[in-house]
Amino acid sequence: MHMSTIKDRLAALAAQLAGDRLSGFVIPLTDEHMSEYVGAYAQRLEWLTGFAGSAGSAAVLGQKAAIFTDGRYTLQVRDQVPGDLFEYQDVPKTSAAAWLADHAAAGDRIGYDPWLHTRGWADATAKLLAAKNAELVPVAVNPIDSIWAGRPAPSTAALEIHADDNAGRTAAQKREDVAAWLKVHGASAVVITALDSIAWLLNIRGRDVDRTPVALAFAIVHADASVDLFTAPHKLTPEVRAHLGPQVRPQDRNAFDDALGGFSGKTVAADPSSAVAAVFAALTSGGATILEARDPCVLPKAIKNAVEINGTTTAHRRDGAALTRFLHWFDGEAAKGQLTELSAAARLRQFRDQTNVLEDLSFDTISATGANGASPHYRVSEASSLPITSGSIYLVDSGGQYRDGTTDVTRTMAVGTPTAEMKDRFTRVLKGHIALARAVFPAGTRGVQLDSLARQFLWEVGLDYAHGTGHGVGSYLAVHEGPQRIAAAWSSQPGNDEPLQAGMILSNEPGYYKTGEYGIRIENLVLVEPRSVPGAEKDLLGFRELTLAPIDRNLIDTGLLTETERKWLNTYHARVIAEIGPQLDDPTRTWLETAAAPI
């Protein structure tokens, strides 16, 4: 069957499910590692539905189908996914599991790929379906893969060495730490499936996933600090093999499932949030005793060491200079009326490329004007790209992957003269950004306790934004890294309850989005560091700005700022001039001095 349309693909899936004796199927946007960003081979959701966002899922049941996205994608999903074929469902109000349970009939057999879901999800969904006398069935072959003609093969890119000069600690030291953790927990081994954890642990990187420098692999770390690394053999160069050393035993990626069956009578740790249901099933059938525990790489990966902090500081200065060159260029070019979202994004990429050390972008640049800006995670394309016109707002959310750090920054600019409403909304977002940036809080504070600081000035006038305020960021790794985050209590994302610790990097990115008209976001990355306050009776923490680039003064209603807020902004801009200015030539340096002048 020629499947050029989504309708054709749904019909082919229905036929495949019938042949597999299944009533329905669940399609998540992830891979065997529960990754947020996945390789082309794992983009099953986009192939079936047309949805190109970075978070979502779909479910098919008989003649019905639904797609599930959160508030970041409310507009995007309606643009990309045909509403006559898929019901639009909002998360966290509902979920694929809840929708299936609502619509299932007695006797229905609903399939899922156990390599793409956690055991917790499978158990909870099976329980919901059982109440309807329906069954959740693991499939040996994903039915999407059976019908996806021309499905891309997994990347064949070689692994790369992440130098100790950038990592700050050797892979041997990290393996010894995991071995010590295993001894404390009385376990023989731990299964590591998260790609960024494997990359961090072994000081390796890869090019198997766009924008995230990781390699497709699984790892089993043993109590003697040795590691079985499962990856395609052709990905291991002699240099990488030498770097890994004799205690790391490379094995074919396809041998991973069988290896999980070799722990009879032993205790094996696995993270229920990142190890898929198939991992737990293989361990159980092999006779292992399973210890459910958080991946021991997660927290030390999140708490950057001194070398990583110095590296990311350097990367942000470099990246800030590239962004400032772009902002100067944009300020001159936008008024001419010739720019588009695509051409602006391409020019920003050129400025980053000119650093000569850019490895990749850290995510697809969000380059948005007008109505497109109202979609927080909009992704520009040839079909969607709008001209950037006078009287509009332009939002650019972008970042770079450098060997010494990962960046992520959003700036919002007025094109021409902004309206009073635009300035009011921008200033309220700025006030929230400053409130969070200035926060001083006791050690042990969670992100959920800080989130309302950034929303309060929008809440005062009945406004809000439907995304988190802050996410963790890796060190030449994932731009979205756990376990910490700053988000509202209603957020469906995990990590809100993680205590913030010195050395963690987070984003500070409140926003406002007016459907059909414009979007505003101000984002800096910040480092959690100790704070000293005279007379304090507790250990205190605060944030230091890593991102250095001017904030558009043309969008600020200065009458809404307090003296404290004004001082913060002026101090921040003085830092931008001091640290970014020396990297710039005229006329950009002179432009910056004006753009970042005190208010």
From TrEMBL:
Q: Which GO terms describe its molecular function?
A: metal ion binding; metalloaminopeptidase activity
Q: Which residues form the Creatinase N-terminal domain?
A: 9-139
Extract the InterPro entries matched here: Creatin/AminoP/Spt16_N (IPR029149), Creatinase/aminopeptidase-like (IPR036005), Creatinase_N (IPR000587), Pept_M24 (IPR000994), Pept_M24B (IPR033740), Peptidase_M24_C (IPR032416), X-Pro_aminopeptidase_P (IPR050422)
Q: Which UniProt keywords apply?
A: Aminopeptidase, Hydrolase, Metal-binding, Protease
A single GO CC term for this protein reads: cytoplasm
The chain positions of domain Peptidase M24 C-terminal read 540-599
Q: Which residues form the Peptidase M24 domain?
A: 314-529
Q: Which SUPFAM superfamilies match?
A: Creatinase/aminopeptidase, Creatinase/prolidase N-terminal domain
Q: Which CDD domains match?
A: APP (cd01085)
Family the UniProt entry places it in: Belongs to the peptidase M24B family.
Q: What is the designated name of this protein?
A: Aminopeptidase
Source organism of this protein record: Sandarakinorhabdus glacialis
